[in-house]
Protein 1
Amino acid sequence: MLVVMQATATQADIDRVCTAITEMGFQPLPMPGAQRTTVGLVGNDRRVDGSHIEALPGVSEIIYVSSPFKQVSREWRAENTIVTIAPGVSFGGTDVPVIAGPCSVENEKQILQAAQVVRAAGAVALRGGAFKPRSSPYSFQGLGKEGLELLKLAKAETGLAIVTEAMDDDGAQLCAEYADCIQIGARNMQNYSLLKTVGKLRKPVMLKRGMAATVQELLLSAEYILAEGNDQVILCERGVRTWDPSSRNMFDLNAIPAVQKLSHLPIIADPSHGTGVRDRVPPMARAAVAAGTDGLLIEVHPDPNRALSDGAQSLFPAQFTDLMRELGPIASAIGRRIAAL
Amino acid sequence: MLVVMQATATQADIDRVCTAITEMGFQPLPMPGAQRTTVGLVGNDRRVDGSHIEALPGVSEIIYVSSPFKQVSREWRAENTIVTIAPGVSFGGTDVPVIAGPCSVENEKQILQAAQVVRAAGAVALRGGAFKPRSSPYSFQGLGKEGLELLKLAKAETGLAIVTEAMDDDGAQLCAEYADCIQIGARNMQNYSLLKTVGKLRKPVMLKRGMAATVQELLLSAEYILAEGNDQVILCERGVRTWDPSSRNMFDLNAIPAVQKLSHLPIIADPSHGTGVRDRVPPMARAAVAAGTDGLLIEVHPDPNRALSDGAQSLFPAQFTDLMRELGPIASAIGRRIAAL
Amino acid sequence: MLVVMQATATQADIDRVCTAITEMGFQPLPMPGAQRTTVGLVGNDRRVDGSHIEALPGVSEIIYVSSPFKQVSREWRAENTIVTIAPGVSFGGTDVPVIAGPCSVENEKQILQAAQVVRAAGAVALRGGAFKPRSSPYSFQGLGKEGLELLKLAKAETGLAIVTEAMDDDGAQLCAEYADCIQIGARNMQNYSLLKTVGKLRKPVMLKRGMAATVQELLLSAEYILAEGNDQVILCERGVRTWDPSSRNMFDLNAIPAVQKLSHLPIIADPSHGTGVRDRVPPMARAAVAAGTDGLLIEVHPDPNRALSDGAQSLFPAQFTDLMRELGPIASAIGRRIAAL
Amino acid sequence: MLVVMQATATQADIDRVCTAITEMGFQPLPMPGAQRTTVGLVGNDRRVDGSHIEALPGVSEIIYVSSPFKQVSREWRAENTIVTIAPGVSFGGTDVPVIAGPCSVENEKQILQAAQVVRAAGAVALRGGAFKPRSSPYSFQGLGKEGLELLKLAKAETGLAIVTEAMDDDGAQLCAEYADCIQIGARNMQNYSLLKTVGKLRKPVMLKRGMAATVQELLLSAEYILAEGNDQVILCERGVRTWDPSSRNMFDLNAIPAVQKLSHLPIIADPSHGTGVRDRVPPMARAAVAAGTDGLLIEVHPDPNRALSDGAQSLFPAQFTDLMRELGPIASAIGRRIAAL
């Protein structure tokens, strides 16, 4: 923790800050500058709350220098964590697995078709929502447990691993039973009760970045899961909210190298939500691979024109097949490989 | 729903869109313009998902014109909803109630002192968190049920109504038992499972705006509560996230008249989170009253320098007393009154 | 400047940073912590660029602690600067002057009517654009010099001071000749050539905050003007850009106390651009006064329905008259007064 | 233009809107819906300002359906515009030219070294600022005309095309004389006087996206240049401002396909400003190519540790050489080629 004094602070002001730091059990270290003095605090500052020092006379600002996360950081573990959600489907290594499928599980025919289509094109896992968080209470909310049964069926038929979203404790228990990886959606990124629940479940978790969450907040939310003993966490960039209405979201590919530098956890990219528009999914999926993503999450629907949700951003089967063909050479160019079952 | 065609769209493109609208069970209404044609859809468009029309050749854009909320809107109910959380503590009328107290309940002495201080200065309700959503799992998480017991004690001693936050279903049940109004925090504004739970509890709910939630999303989240049969909802503006680090949040006072125009629900303002800095709380509290807020939520701590959380934005008792004195004449100037017990 | 080391940094890494700081001519001051070491730099750090230190092994982050502005800061001058644009029209003291008028000067009749209307209601200065920055090159761009002549005429008839915008060097010269205060618009807040030009003109300048400018950037742009020798600068909050489409802009009233703490320059508020909607102008104008604004800038048009620009946010004459009546008691409540000619 | 009525609007309200549209010279077309009526306006709506209709009783909202840009749009010209700034250096075709060099021209040795280094690695144009827009008036402002002379010298020695920034009219004239392409920086994207000036110069212009400019605003600013008769415009995505402090900017690669769909103008990407951190430049440069960028603008300095500006985001020569090697296969994967002299 650093206490930046005002240029006009008196020696008495500085002394008062030093006394306050001493009373907190740390050692103050004043650094006079030509413009102003800064007082450092020597000792472990992880849990120090300096807000009352901010109110002392002559204090301009408090700066915290400790990173607030711990187990998620590369300093805690230097090697990449490899998260394996099913045999052959691992995130964090050289291979880049692609998870694909519809926004929602709608019925047996739709999800089986979707599974076959994405399997044939090279995906290794199937996505599909049984519990859907919708802005409006009047929108389709998912098939619930029946949807999970259908996903299980799709797995049995295709061998694809299953990734599906949980919205509350009961849903998380069910997803843990039926699926290979529990998705926590953007709206629940800071639902700490739910994070603790999935932290206790010992099942791989895919944690999506909140609508306006900083990279640091994403990592802190992951820390909640690791703090409960579950380090099988895959992070996911899915676009964030900005002031530009030209896209549903702004796809922050920068977050990929940023997270990979700060954390040992794998991070994947969701260009479907990241852009919100079908035509931009292929270029952004390619860009994500070139940027070094550890996986992709892509919406594909057997018949997007009849999708119950997110139709406009779902790829047609043929588009997805073409895209998968393009991704291979790009992965090769940076020494990686699109994962295959 | 409006379908805006490209300037280069052919008559065949326009016909194809009209056919698609007809197939959806609505009547198409083409409006030729000098630049381009727009095709309107006549009929109830609340639940229409036009995303597959967006993909037809010659289509430039889809514009939705129906407002997605229903029971929360002024069109549904023209008169203000008055939410009474305790005898004499009503939001949505001429009176402006002030809720004040510490960020967290820390211990008996602290919460009782806080209650006495804010009661003496003119507050009509006490805030204080027993369950605290914290970005880091290693920060103080609140006293839990013990905190609720202490709030009940403070109510018994002072007569103040109690407002406290719930983070999950179990917490919501407990808060309903001990408190007068259940707060849903910014991070849980789109935790739809929790919204449904409090919608069923028939207890007043204070719903805080999410960190980066639009006014429309705030209203849609309230719609979840009303859709379950509970219309005792108070909305709360508490500052939102922007790109300017000069404040912890940007306090969007504009949201007050905006919500009051769109909805019959009361909206209050939280200048403590709205600014994040003690010195700015009084000017922004005054501004909120001048802007027509239906209530205030203010952090006051008997000894902010020793607060376990949010010390830097908590008012000292004397500051709060001064502020309460300033608010009266401002409320009078616009024909309102600071509520008194 | 502070150099935050990684938790895994070796003593050799720390030594290398200390050597680099010494080579830059400053004295390094290492502060070991339980988690990580921070190295302070003792000496004047105003112009230090530590970016190459950031690249040294073991370095996690560089933190700058010097404020980058100088002459605009309260540390440079503790007393408020009073900017007087015409006899009796001063910003920065107890009085709160109101500048009102149409977005653009359209013709003689319109501007004279506007001037009479706002004069009668109590404004002390007239606004009106002769040079208009418009997003589209095909929108009305203003009357140019003819507009300035009409403003001069309006001044002669009403005694109101004149505030009008300049967009380039030639325009600035003309405005200096015809008007009492030169406005620099939001889009030109970082047009440094223009800032230098008006810094040399020795005429009061009203500098509007850029669309997405931080408070610090606003002050740095003002610093450009002061650095040329002109300290007659009035800052103006006019709403900023965010992700919420429910308002044209988000009106950041928080910026008023924030600027007043950091700088001695007066800051006024423009609720017309700050909200973009006529109905929200009165509540936000009241809020600005309650928050302590040093002045108001309000769009009023004799016939908003026929305005060539910004009609939807211009007040009708009667609305403005009502608003002026409401503002007095609010100003009184905080010990100020709406300025009168 | 569409006028959305409130659900509670009466037939008289609708009639009043129809009359107002008729008075404006257009034909109204009411579309009754189950929820509410919408009134369309038939006829050319490019310049229609409906703000006074917004104020009529019963009106909920005005929606504009015409795109406000004209000459920059793909509807105006379907084929890509190819902008050739020097023989062999063309933007908008299959080839992807790379412009590289230091932030500022510092001295002869530095700029010649930089030119040789980037030439050897495969760049086809040299960037380097002679006029520098800096947030603080006390930062290095560039060498001015002397810098232009040095750029000319670098061109003579290496054959690289020259791209350099102009900040005002005089600078634009000089840049036109000395350089091959005039850059308009992010801070001047809405400096309309300067846009008009470069529109008249008939020299290629590279227009950088403003700090918080939407894609539509970027295109409208380009429209200012085309409206003066100059269609040699290259757009540039350089990162935008958001609420996440983890990066200097958020790099909006989504803007590349978005612009390419809306406009015939080429768009290039600047990953140096887009990320602000050296380590993220290579992954984001690769991502930009995979996303289909029409060119790259990259900061490279012969000795970044001693750079006078932007050192932390400038690549070392060896990093740039490595990056150029990686880009080729990625370009090939999507059927393009990194341009070579």
Protein 2
Amino acid sequence: MSEERTRAGRRGRAMRKRAREAALQDVGKVIRSGIEVDLYRPLGTHEIERIHEAALTVLERVGMGDAIPILYELAANKGCEITEEGRIKFPRALVEDVIAGACRSFVFHGREPEHDLEISGSRVHFGTAGAAVSVPDFGTGRYRPSTLHDIYDFGRLVDRLPNLAWYSRTVVPAEIEDWTAMDLNMAYATAASTTKAIGVSFNEAGNVAPVVEMFDMMLGGEGRFSRRPFCKVHSTAIVPPLKFAPENSEVNVAAARNGMPVNLIIAAQAGATSPASLAGTLVQTTAEALGGLVLINLVRPGHPVIFSNWPFTSDLRTGAFSGGGPEEALLNAGAAQIANWYGLPSGVAAGMTDSKVPDNQAGYEKAITNLLVGMSGANFVYESAGMQGALLGCSYEALAIDNEMMGNILRVLRGIEVTEDTLSVPVIEQAVAGPGHFLGHEQTLNLMQTEYLFPELGDRNTPAVWEEDGSRDIFQRAHERVREILSTHYPQTIAPEADARIRERFDIHLSPEDMRPECARW
Amino acid sequence: MSEERTRAGRRGRAMRKRAREAALQDVGKVIRSGIEVDLYRPLGTHEIERIHEAALTVLERVGMGDAIPILYELAANKGCEITEEGRIKFPRALVEDVIAGACRSFVFHGREPEHDLEISGSRVHFGTAGAAVSVPDFGTGRYRPSTLHDIYDFGRLVDRLPNLAWYSRTVVPAEIEDWTAMDLNMAYATAASTTKAIGVSFNEAGNVAPVVEMFDMMLGGEGRFSRRPFCKVHSTAIVPPLKFAPENSEVNVAAARNGMPVNLIIAAQAGATSPASLAGTLVQTTAEALGGLVLINLVRPGHPVIFSNWPFTSDLRTGAFSGGGPEEALLNAGAAQIANWYGLPSGVAAGMTDSKVPDNQAGYEKAITNLLVGMSGANFVYESAGMQGALLGCSYEALAIDNEMMGNILRVLRGIEVTEDTLSVPVIEQAVAGPGHFLGHEQTLNLMQTEYLFPELGDRNTPAVWEEDGSRDIFQRAHERVREILSTHYPQTIAPEADARIRERFDIHLSPEDMRPECARW
């Protein structure tokens, strides 16, 4: 590279940095998480009613197998028939009663109040989730097993990505074999990484209470977590078709008893563990989600439960899970619509590209799925950012890029404001009578800060300037941005004294050195 | 690369090729161009009415400048006031009458009837357009000036991309300086490249009749073109704000007189040549499109005109055109809605990424804009595929990738079918009572061919298989696919005798050697 080229590159980078900083300051004004949305309805109301009726029929005729003892007991008390094979058949009226009495809205608290999320109606929030087992290495790009460090580092990154509203871990720590150690350390690493609201998962129900104890210690005293629960449990409550997952059922019961909102995930896979027909998959998964809702509400009526129906699809040529196709968008937008029709907090999955890299395929697969579920009013859009390879991996660069995409989607969700002012007839008259353009008009200058979203990573240079600047694509710019953030941003989320006490009480694998700018990883 | 790796790579490619061929055969069953869509309404009906009223006010109070003589004459006959500055002020009633009498639907003919497009209601078709001046070179990737060969080659590619419904040239031939030579040769190269319907443009109105003559010769005799007009004129009819473009006005008049449908393009740029307010830009551009509609309908009432309002946006930090932002999606979806509210054939622009390469940014910017205008029911989605760098370039690989993305969008537009069969209650009962899964169920096997779209270029392998196969992204796969198509696919669209006569009559720059597989370019 010639010296001139290098200087031009540096100048370009400095210009981009300034533009980026200017853009960042504006983001809050142009878009925000949590706006009410009702823009896309893949299902007509009568179609939703038919799906609902069919789901009730399934729960009544087929029922749910593999319940845990407490559910058999509570269900029998409510008049459910329990078959010889151990299937609980739910009367329609019971299910309807549970829907009517279920929690309809709640505040999902951030560690900092600025990150509190109102969960109600069709308010849309994008965030993370996932249990990927691998990470395209930040250095080599090759897929490697994910670690606890990744959980902490992805969280620190999410902490700085304004369009992601909460952080649930996207990968599992493959190096930790002991289930209890895994549960406790995932919770610690997630909570330590960000002041946004978080989500965790549990291998064992017995770890829920200790994690709440840990959170209480972070917050400065017993009982504090239950006052501002900043963490929800992700629990795949069902083994499709139509069986409870016993251990996760116990986790759900423990979460309900410990005041932790439950993200009740239904993860059937059309063509494999649910019907290949899209409508049929919605029938089965709605039945399954209702089954899970009944369980938690029988244990603790009105406990905050997210009706998280994530209908997945199979590539029917191989039977393998596929996350990026258009059928996935339809299914999850339909699932959001159904949950919102029930008036329940809704969660769906989107952004699950099948591509292994954040390439163009990832861009369009994620955009189509995220946009549609956002337009359908899903309260929680899970897996929305970072995921690659049909949920097998989570990529640092993808997380940063997807945050940028989510900005575009949030701007779309805000829509077009039509008022006497915005119709601009006098502005048009002035421009025609005057300069013949609108560049310096007061309206133009005012709307710059409120109407238009400026990209941070997205490139808008001319081809010539772009080539002079090294012909970099968004992956390369994201790579640089991730390194900037992760080499410097170590949020202090736990007071040193509390941290010392937590480390005394629990076997925390992340060392204090792992959590400082001097750490060797970045 | 080891021999084993090479063999694995070959095996992988052969597998992909078979999967691709299988997928291609299925496409027709799962998706199709031209379905009726009403899925997204960024504007409420009352908001459209307000925009319409404001547009009529603008036409009445501000009017349109720089008309051509015939329009001044016809407008004066209709009672329009013509100001001292030469602005025509259009009475509301005249505009309303023109809307009521305008062409509301037509068949846009392909050279082959299988490619005929029904243009009516909210039927959605994706296709190309553009006047890019450069092409990222297929070999080096560096931007170079576009040529007549590119026009021919892009058309041959579109001819094989099933989700693109027509071909209008995406680039201009930078090497041709003479305007008449450019008009004639663009028309020839475009028509020679594909049997799909096409679009052309003219620098000079006097070239319209000769091109129709050329098309008649291709079709085998005088008057044939007017029976099945397979080509429309793209004409940027307005210089915003609110002035006619004189030469293009003459082109429109000539097209109307020669039976060539007119794609009446309005290309204002919010914040520069129209208000920064989105609603204000829709007011001005609606007024401008109505002005153009009046011109053509006064000359030839009921002539097929596409109400092609393409509101562009500026990056207000620089004033430069930006095509990929979310505001662009909102504006064009709103424009489609307004045109459809008038009941007129609607055209909008989408897919205009600002990125210079088909990277992730291009993927999400194109997906968001194309999806939303598709959902809003635009009859013609222009610029939808291939364009890069805010319309400054057209990329071969992008064209192939975007066709794939359009498949996903078309599948979304089809939606979810809810019937007693698709609700699948008996299927669920059978699976639970039987094998516990749906993999071999008759419904699954049947729906494989009709419910699910399988990607051709999109990757669904596991990370391990993908890495073994060379860790290629969709750009690399598209590159290979483009080379396969363009080195072999030379559609014979002009009979040799007709071609000889055309070459006698016109100075055709593409040589017969350029149009054969042995040509050196690919």
